Amino acid sequence: MAEVYVPFLLVLMSWNADNPDATMSVQTRLFIDQAACESHGQDIAAMSKADRESRTLRFPDAKEQIAKERFSWRCTQSPVFIQKTDTGS
Predict the structure, then answer these.
(1) What separation in angstroms does the CA of 28 have from each of 11, 17, 31, 72, 84?
(2) Cβ(15)–Cβ(27) under 8 Å?
(3) In the prediction, which pLDDT does 15 show?
(4) For 8, which of 16, 31, 36, 45 could close a Cys bridge (C-beta 3.0–4.6 Å)?
(5) Is 86 exposed, middle or buried (0-12, 13-18, 19+ CB in 10 A)?
(6) Between the CA of residue 89 and those of 5, 6, 35, 85, 86, what are the distances in Å?
(7) What is d(CA 24, CA 69) in angstroms, rounded to the nearest whole number?
(8) Residues 6+ apart with CB under 8 A from 35
């Protein structure tokens, strides 16, 4: 069995400010280097912002609701040391 170490985790989070517990969405993606992780996070953030702006123009009645949408992202480095455990199989 081969082990693969992928050191960077991109965490994408979105929610509605009025009800974060019920609307929180979290996605994760793995990247081999920090530059790729951060570049992808910035690209997704730009697309999210453009989408909100586009929907605000197309749906002026929903402008207030769209303004409550939140998006954030982080690249985090995975732990360097991973402890193996006996799975019993």
Answers:
(1) 5, 21, 10, 12, 23
(2) no
(3) 96
(4) 31
(5) exposed
(6) 23, 25, 38, 11, 8
(7) 10
(8) none
Tokens of 7: 């050191």
Are 66 and 43 a contacting pair, CB within 8 Å?
Answer: no
Cα 74 to Cα 14, 25, 61, 70, 80, distances in angstroms: 12, 14, 32, 14, 18
Tokens matching residue 77: 């480095």
Amino acid letter, residue 70: R
Give how far Cα 79 sits from Cα of 5, 7, 21, 22, 32, Å: 10, 8, 28, 30, 13
- Match 């990247």 to its residue by tokens: 31
| Tokens representing residue 88 in the block | 């019993």
